[in-house]
Specification:
elongated; 17 helices; alpha/beta
Length: about 325
């Protein structure tokens, strides 16, 4: 089920007996976990009526004993079981065959924090089927770009930051889509830029770039034929001990996307369509589209060949990978 279903439960205050919260967006998973607690507890109740267990250390006996406890201060108690592996958890097996242990005075939350469960196994299907009978499975994945941009704009208002729509896109492109990181970087900007609109230069000076974004600095230097900057970036990456293979992947993706964006743009596709088809953010697609008319298709084909040769060399030769990256960078700049 979607977040919307959980939001309705939270807003109404009518919580189910059991929830399984999973997905790949840790910020939102933790946010909604805290929202459930707020529904159930005042400041005192959470100390006496909230129980948390690591799934691999929880026995069926301890689970049943906790389920039997009555709430002390709150109307309901809450039990959180973290990182439960369906196929290994005796508690999951027990719940599958003994759903009667679920009670009206308890909200049971299975919380996926670091474990990624295989939901296609028989154990998973049986457990999740039971969860859906008495509660909800809430899948919370990373937000799409438009929703994430709206969230950033909301956080800008909360932190009294003035940021134009294009600057918000630039900020997202630089920092990445991890919401914890985005929030921490917004708070950093708030400490320095409250009185004036945030600029791209301030983002460059104050914010910590994601590894992908650092790689984009290199591809921008290649695109602009700025060999001096490109070599300096490679030197910086090497001193920071960033994997050469990771940087190579960024370059390969850059050239591959350049090829795809050009084909789609020349077929009449608009920027939002191209972004959706390729699974990209709109901001980098705009950057590609602003320049693709400057390079002929045979040149892009040559760049693809150079990347394939570099990939093979990285995987099969003993030459230092950063030397191979410097060589590839020079070849790409010459081809553009």
């Amino acid at each position: 089920m979607s977040i919307t279903q959980l939001q309705k439960d939270i807003q109404s205050g009518q919580l189910d007996k059991i929830y399984y919260i999973c997905g790949d967006e840790p910020f939102l998973k933790n946010f909604y976990l805290q929202q459930i607690k707020k529904v159930l507890f005042d400041e005192g109740g959470i100390d006496t009526d909230f129980y948390i267990f690591e799934a691999d250390k929880l026995t069926v006996e301890a689970f049943c004993d906790t389920m039997d406890l009555f709430p002390v201060q709150a109307q309901k108690k809450m039990i959180q079981i973290t990182d439960c592996i369906f196929s290994k958890s005796p508690v999951c097996s027990y719940l599958t065959t003994h759903p009667e242990i679920l009670s009206e005075d308890t909200v049971l939350v299975f919380f996926e924090q670091t474990v990624k469960n295989n939901k296609t196994t028989e154990a998973a299907k049986s457990f999740l089927k039971q969860v859906k009978v008495f509660g909800k499975v809430i899948q919370i994945d990373k937000l799409d770009q438009k929703t994430l941009l709206r969230w950033i704009e909301k956080q800008c208002r909360i932190h009294q930051l003035k940021m134009s729509a294009s600057t918000v896109e630039y900020f997202l492109d630089c920092v990445g889509d991890d919401m914890y990181t985005l929030l921490s970087q917004l708070k950093k900007l708030s400490a320095f830029c409250q009185d004036t609109p945030v600029t791209e230069a301030q983002i460059d000076a104050l914010c910590t770039r994601s590894t992908d974004s650092q790689g984009y600095l290199l591809t921008d230097a290649i695109w602009n034929k700025n060999a001096t900057k490109a070599y300096q970036l490679l030197s910086d990456f090497e001193s920071q001990k960033i994997s050469a293979e990771l940087i190579a992947g960024t370059i390969f993706n850059f050239v591959g996307r350049l090829y795809k964006v050009k084909l789609l743009a020349e077929s009449g596709k608009r920027i939002p369509e191209i972004a959706q088809i390729l699974g990209m953010k709109e901001y980098p697609v705009k950057k590609y589209c602003a320049h693709i008319h400057q390079i002929a298709q045979p040149h892009i084909n040559k760049m693809l060949d150079l990347c394939a040769e570099a990939d093979l060399a990285i995987k099969t030769t003993a030459v230092d990978n950063y030397i191979l990256l410097a060589q590839l960078t020079a070849q790409l700049i010459q081809t553009l």
